[in-house]
Amino acid sequence: MKLLFYDKFFDSFINLPKGIQKKVVEFQKKFRENSKSSGIHLESILSFKDQSLRSARVDQTYRAIIKAPQAGDIYYLLW
Predict the structure, then answer these.
(1) Residue 16 and residue 54: Cα distance in Å, rounded?
(2) 3-state secondary structure string, 11-58?
(3) pTM for the full model?
(4) Which of 20, 31, 71, 76 lies at a CB distance of 3.0 to 4.6 Å from 67, suitable for a disulfide?
(5) How far is Cα 56 from Cα 26, in angstroms, rounded to an integer?
(6) What is the mean pLDDT of residues 52-64?
């Protein structure tokens, strides 16, 4: 499984509080190890037109937006 970063991801990442930045780094490591882990809570976003977009838990307040592949194993961390 590969996790790629959208080029504008880091524009938002640098604006997060330092504690949340650390959690995002930990999250992406966990996601790469096991994207199907129940602790990640990877969920479809039903209100979005693009059904390949998913939401995943970083902590109780913050969620990551991920584009899931229709085939293969390349995911994109968008937001």
Answers:
(1) 20
(2) HHHCCCCHHHHHHHHHHHHHHHHCCCCCCCCCEECCCCCCCCEEEEEC
(3) 0.83
(4) 76
(5) 13
(6) 91
